[in-house]
Amino acid sequence: MCHITQRSSTSSFPKIYSIFWRFHHTSTSHWCSCSKTISDEKYQDPFQLGKKDLKNLYEDIKKELLVSAAELKEMCDYYFDGKGKAFRPMIVVLMARACNIHYNNSKEVQASQRSVAIIAEMIHTASLVHDDVIDDANSRRGKRTLNQIWGERKAVLAGDFILSAASVALARIGNTTIISVLTQVIEDLVRGEFLQLGSKENENERFAHYLEKTFKKTASLIANSCKAVSILGCPDPKVHEIAYQYGKNVGIAFQLIDDVLDFTSCADHLGKPTAADLKLGLATGPVLFACRQFPEMNAMIMRRFSKPGDVERARKYVLQSDGVQQTTYLAQRYCHAATREIRKLRPSPEREALVHLTEMVLMRDK
């Protein structure tokens, strides 16, 4: 069983931490630092509540990917094998139900709302295929990547095809507002990838740069998908903002925990190599926080851990620092923000499931 030992921090959270948080949150509300949010309502399992609406999800995605070329079909079906967590589609259908109940007490998910869940999973998967090519990754979800099996050129084309099929499904919804909201996701994914290719020398700018990249590459998809189903289910702009803010905060927290797991989880358990971000030259939350305690990391960050021994030394510094703890605490704060937003909706089992989902994000180990 993998575990780590860390040097406990006795210092208060750094000034830069507050700057980092205020980049997306201007509220001066006090936040609890407890390990997870405890819901007073009856426990609701998000996966069980969303199960009905997600039935045959991957079969329906494969119908969107109908293609005559056998090899392209095999490549497109590769990650839609039904073994994924379907985390994003689950959030989308739960948000759809919560907004529908809030507006007119309707407990059914509209066909167009379910289509958004399908499109979100397709966009997400296409982005993974392209990410693996950019990163030259060799494993994903516990198996070899498309680019390792079929080569980079074909993998890029497969990702493009999945994205084009998602665009066709989006157009079929027939709502220009929804098209605008979800195409923003694709723009953000590209901009986020470009942000990841760059780095900042100034510590304050470095945190802001990291958070913006995190939003665009991960949280935008969840935020805008939640907003899209809220628009389809309720005409109130305030509800659209609630859905968007919930998705944004959960999405950022999800990626922060992902960045923590890159240092604390076993490769076999995670389904991909650990310390992968360092090997790619990326300074994520745990590294940026650790840099305050070990300033010598600054030079390594700027040269993107390219010298022999940089990756191993940086990982050692992170595990000796409170970088993992502070990144986890920051994720807790984003989850608290998500909970605060979703509680503005009328009480429902789906609303409570979305509250519980923030706890699951914090407690996940892969």
From TrEMBL:
<dbReference type="GO" id="GO:0097269">
    <property type="term" value="F:all-trans-decaprenyl-diphosphate synthase activity"/>
</dbReference>
<dbReference type="GO" id="GO:0032478">
    <property type="term" value="C:heterotetrameric polyprenyl diphosphate synthase complex"/>
</dbReference>
<dbReference type="GO" id="GO:0046872">
    <property type="term" value="F:metal ion binding"/>
</dbReference>
<keyword id="KW-0414">Isoprene biosynthesis</keyword>
<dbReference type="InterPro" id="IPR000092">
    <property type="entry name" value="Polyprenyl_synt"/>
</dbReference>
<dbReference type="GO" id="GO:0006744">
    <property type="term" value="P:ubiquinone biosynthetic process"/>
</dbReference>
<keyword id="KW-0496">Mitochondrion</keyword>
<keyword id="KW-0460">Magnesium</keyword>
<comment type="subunit">
    <text>Heterotetramer composed of 2 PDSS1/DPS1 and 2 PDSS2/DLP1 subunits.</text>
</comment>
<dbReference type="InterPro" id="IPR033749">
    <property type="entry name" value="Polyprenyl_synt_CS"/>
</dbReference>
<protein>
    <recommendedName>
        <fullName>All trans-polyprenyl-diphosphate synthase PDSS1</fullName>
        <ecNumber>2.5.1.91</ecNumber>
    </recommendedName>
</protein>
<keyword id="KW-0808">Transferase</keyword>
<dbReference type="GO" id="GO:0008299">
    <property type="term" value="P:isoprenoid biosynthetic process"/>
</dbReference>
<comment type="similarity">
    <text>Belongs to the FPP/GGPP synthase family.</text>
</comment>
<dbReference type="Pfam" id="PF00348">
    <property type="entry name" value="polyprenyl_synt"/>
</dbReference>
<dbReference type="InterPro" id="IPR008949">
    <property type="entry name" value="Isoprenoid_synthase_dom_sf"/>
</dbReference>
<comment type="function">
    <text>Heterotetrameric enzyme that catalyzes the condensation of farnesyl diphosphate (FPP), which acts as a primer, and isopentenyl diphosphate (IPP) to produce prenyl diphosphates of varying chain lengths and participates in the determination of the side chain of ubiquinone. Supplies nona and decaprenyl diphosphate, the precursors for the side chain of the isoprenoid quinones ubiquinone-9 (Q9)and ubiquinone-10 (Q10) respectively. The enzyme adds isopentenyl diphosphate molecules sequentially to farnesyl diphosphate with trans stereochemistry.</text>
</comment>
<comment type="pathway">
    <text>Cofactor biosynthesis; ubiquinone biosynthesis.</text>
</comment>
<keyword id="KW-0443">Lipid metabolism</keyword>
<keyword id="KW-0479">Metal-binding</keyword>
